[in-house]
Design goal:
439 residues; alpha/beta; Lyase, Ornithine Decarboxylase, Chain A, domain 1; TIM Barrel; 2 domains; eight-stranded mixed sheet; 12 helices
């Protein structure tokens, strides 16, 4: 049997994650299917790829992990040991960081609701760097800092209003996220900056923006940086000199999902020179932060399922597996074309293979990519979904009363360990209110 742990090139130019057929079948026999399988070494490799992409930056560079992509404690512990930052947007995420052995000092907290109670909670738990995105949020942060009696390093999330060709856009006129540079009287980056610079308990730290997800054209970063530079220089002329210690350019690094996309090195080659010019322009070696959730986790994980039935309709062969979109929600919401393969493969059939899940829903049909290899699909064989580490495990749904499956990890020593136990039906029943029924 060929050991599929050998590393062929993926469409993104990065070696594809591999496990041997023997390993996959052994784990299926022990833990059942479907199951998720995470590779610790790949998580660490993705951190290195981002760091290498920005290695020419003339200042301190930090990677930040957006925990919303995958908050499994084994993943958090891996990134914590890498010494990177964490981008959080909920107190519960902070609790996951702390319970996983992480530190609040490594957290950049970016709230969406910006309530007083939320800020009080995270400040009491040790967070000291907060990103604000509204005037009211700033007032709440100032009051919370006063109540907890701490000084908060405060960043301002700006909306550069640049056109972004991306799967999910985070920069648009009058959008949900961030502040326009010179928008409304109070809810503008200029007005909030002026307030922060004179607010007791707050210390201005820098700026943050996030343009979107799966960004393949780096020109939008260049435009955003250009606009931010102009805003900083113009604000200094009006407000006097102020230090800019951190600039966070957000995330958006694309994952291939079966087709060629730019790498972190490609992005770095396009914008690091401009960022170095920004250092010279504002006269400060600021800390540069690049966030990632999807890029850091997607290629680290596979979903292993089993073929349970097949049937033919003329030129089509329908292959039924024991997983469904309740485990890969983006396949239904965003029509993600995950690379899929049958293990072991077989002879190519003239019939078109249609891969369908176990849910009673017509949407439970999996789009497949150009990297998919579905020949030889027969009952009993395994079907492997690649690049599923981001926004899948965190979105597992109990559709059809389906308990959550095992999450396994191949650790740095090459051993397979349980990262999340399979949920049992009685546990799901209790969570859904079964233990609230009258006796």
């Amino acid at each position: 049997m060929v050991d599929t742990r050998t590393q062929p090139e993926s469409r993104s130019g990065v070696a594809a994650l591999r496990f041997s057929d023997k390993e996959l079948y052994s784990l299926a026999g022990k833990y059942g299917t479907p199951y998720f399988l995470v590779d610790e070494a790949t998580l660490r490799k993705k951190v290195r790829e981002i760091e290498q992409g920005f290695s020419e930056f003339k200042g301190v560079f930090r990677v930040a992990y957006s925990v919303k992509a995958n908050f499994n404690p084994s993943v958090i512990r891996t990134f914590s040991s890498e010494g990177i930052l964490f981008d959080l947007t909920a107190p519960s995420e902070l609790q996951f960081i702390l319970m996983s052995g992480g530190s609040a000092e490594e957290v950049m907290y970016t709230s969406i609701t910006e309530t007083l109670a939320e800020y009080e909670e995270v400040l009491r738990l040790g967070v000291r760097k907060v990103v604000v995105a509204s005037y009211n949020g700033l007032l709440n942060l100032q009051e919370a800092a006063n109540k907890v009696n701490v000084t908060v390093m405060t960043m301002i999330r700006v909306n550069p209003e640049v056109h972004v060709h991306a799967e999910l856009r985070g920069s648009m006129g009058h959008g949900k996220f961030g502040l326009q540079f010179n928008g409304g009287r109070e809810d503008s980056a200029y007005h909030v900056l002026k307030k922060v610079l004179n607010a007791p308990g707050l210390k201005f730290e820098g700026f943050h923006f996030h343009l979107g997800s799966q960004i393949e054209d780096p020109s939008c970063y260049a435009e955003a940086i250009e606009k931010l530079e102009a805003f900083i220089l113009d604000s200094r002329r009006q407000l006097g000199d102020f230090a800019v210690k951190t600039i966070d350019i957000g995330g958006g690094l694309p994952v291939s999902y079966g087709r060629k996309v730019p790498s972190p090195k490609d992005l770095g080659n396009k914008i690091v020179g401009q960022l170095n010019s920004l250092v010279e322009s504002i006269g400060e070696k600021f800390t540069l932060v690049a966030e990632s959730g999807r890029f850091l986790t997607a290629e680290s994980t596979v979903l292993v399922s089993r073929v349970v039935n097949v049937k033919s309709f003329g030129e089509s062969k329908y292959v039924y597996i024991d997983a469904g979109y309740h485990l890969l929600l983006d396949s239904a919401l965003l029509r993600h074309e995950y690379p899929v393969e049958v293990v072991p493969g077989g002879r190519q059939s003239p019939q078109k293979v249609v891969l369908v899940g176990r849910l009673c829903d017509p949407l439970d049909v999996f789009p497949t990519s150009s990297r998919s290899r579905l020949a030889g699909a027969e009952p009993g064989k395994l079907v492997l979904f690649r690049d599923v580490g981001a926004y899948t495990i965190v979105m597992n749904m109990p559709f059809h009363s389906q308990p959550r499956p095992y999450v396994l990890m191949r650790n740095g020593q090459g051993s397979f360990v349980v990262a999340r136990k399979r949920q049992e039906v009685d546990s799901l029943f209790a969570e859904e209110g079964g233990d609230c029924l009258p006796n």
